[in-house]
Design goal:
Structural class: mainly alpha
Number of strands: 8
Number of helices: 12
Shape: globular
Largest sheet: 2 strands, antiparallel
Distance between the termini: 29 Å
Helix content: 40-55%
Radius of gyration: 19 Å
Number of domains: 1
Strand content: 5-15%
Bound molecules: zinc ion
Length: 300
Amino acid sequence: MNYENNRVLTKQGTNAYEGRVRWNPITSIWLSFMTVAWFIGGSSFFSWNAVFIFFLLSGITLCFGHSLGMHRKLIHESFSCSKTLEYIGVWLGTLVGLGGPFTMMRTHDMRDWAQRQTKCHPFFSHQSSIWKDAWWQLHCKLYLRHEPGFEYPSKMSERRFYRWVEATSMLQQLPVALLLFGLGGWGFVFWGICGRVAVSIVGHWFIGYFAHNQGQRDWHVNGAAVQGHNVAFCGIITFGECWHNNHHAFPGSARLGLQKGQSDPGWWVLKTFERLGLVKNLTQPEDLPQRPELASLNNS
Ligand SMILES: [Zn+2]
Ligand SMILES: [Zn+2]
């Protein structure tokens, strides 16, 4: 896929800035439930093994699922792999708790499109105060007055697996919860499901907030209302997703950490998988078409 977002369908009068933010009961209750269950259950059934499970499953679902399966593969098609590997990645990405493949693609693309317009709603730009932004992004939804259409690629609508995962996205936690209960009882469930989902959702927003507000930049996208920023020191815990200025510049690149010192564990996994013959055609910035609106901020 190139940098143009061709799934968002605009027409005369469509705009990214007129709209109302309203409470979104499903996501709000989902996150609140997970957080409260983790605080209460996680402290009552605390064990270091449960904390280990929390870190292990967070790492697996965020790296292989969210970053690789959902973002770099499903949404950006930045590398090729077998259908099976893609399905595993997208399923793991759904376990993060932010939504199924259709929800994730639409949310991602709409934000992308809005940020590339000359003007967009502060909901899309994260430019409100941090507390207001937290409330909006974690508990609300923006309803645009003149919303663009959205066309899912045929691979999505034709594949029953994706439709099933989307329809049952929250229930997908159940088999994992049962497995965890069998392995370590309630402590594993509260830490491995509730704590993990709550921290992943809040962490995802938190990095997104900074990635659109402050931090170093090497690139400027002319004409775009919002620029991406690189969030320092977060390469490892975000598996490379924090190098967001690079991502705004080269959305189709499978590699996110481009400069020295920009650790990108997601990319390291892809390179290892490539050596094992599991993935191929890893797209890098130099493979992408030139963008006339892209300007380097380094004069060297
Ligand atoms: Zn962005
Ligand atoms: Zn993206």
